[in-house]
Amino acid sequence: MNVRRPVAILSQIRAPRARCIGGDALPVADTKHRANAPLTRPQFAHESEEEFARLLDFYGIRWEYEPRSFPLEWDETGRVIESFNPDFYLPDVDLYIELTTLKQSLVTRKNRKIRRLRELYPDVRLEIFYGRDYRNLLFKYGLAKGWDSPAPYVKTLAHDIERILFTEAQIQDRVRELGEQISRDYTGKSPLLVSVLKGALYFIADLSRAISIPVAMDFMAITSYGGEKASSGAVRIIKDLDEKITGRNVILVEDIIDTGLTASYLVKNLSARDPASVRICTLLDKSVRRIVQDLPIDYRGFEVPDIFVVGYGLDYRQLYRNLPFIGVLKEEALQRT
Ligand code: IMP
Ligand code: MG
Question: In the chain, what are the domains?
Fold first, then answer.
């Protein structure tokens, strides 16, 4: 067999057979900051691949399935007679992943191919995942960082999570952007960040540190007469602001705006105290659930679909606030009494 290395290797790489990006939670154009919902699922060749894809989705790691075929051998006419298609590509870390069982008959042939791939394409980064312990492998390769809190208790809570919607890193990036935006918009002023306990606790802590102009903070506590998962819009203030806000530029910092009833009540309440301005900054916007029509949101972290989310301040029955990411609870955790 004549093995050549054509100059134009790239031109022989065929078009993606199946392409899917899961974990679509990264900022892109106008679909910006939408929660990750894999659009189409490719046809997986093995159940283990599907399992791995689910795990990548869980961690919000974007992936493509068999997006590229690397020619390894050519015949005399230059026709490709052997190639290698790694199972996954993770674009954010520029890494190909090949899932492999330990079945000896397959391993030898695959190892030969992988050696060849490394010779021909030295710049291509490929990791081989042996066995099915993908979770540990992701940690080992440093891919699944950002949720593995050192506190055992937080780890236990994390097991109630179906999937991660926004990773710690994604939240931090977005909060930084919002902080920069606010710093620009309020240059020369010193806005007052008003937050409602307790959901926006982590958000206001991080946001205020991402703002590069002088800011003050004040807090309110309210109870909404709703169930555990929805608000009725009827709000009672149980702790009011410490300071007067007359003439101040107020930014209402919210964790999530759902029906909009709470925020609408608060904006009216604050506006009645003669501030110079009142604007809304919310980390999450569940706009599909909006009841209040006229609620201008000036700063919005992420759009979320109509699902109940927890973490980074958001609770279910006062739990899960201290998860560093925002995720979707498993049904069993919602049913638990
Ligand atoms: P709204 O008055 O319907 O906009 O409700 C806003 C409040 O409902 C938030 O401040 C949260 O306390 C709560 N909420 C709405 N959706 C969620 C969710 O998905 N997870 C946790 N709390 C939520
Ligand atoms: Mg709540």
Answer: 10-145 (no CATH), 166-335 (3.40.50.2020)
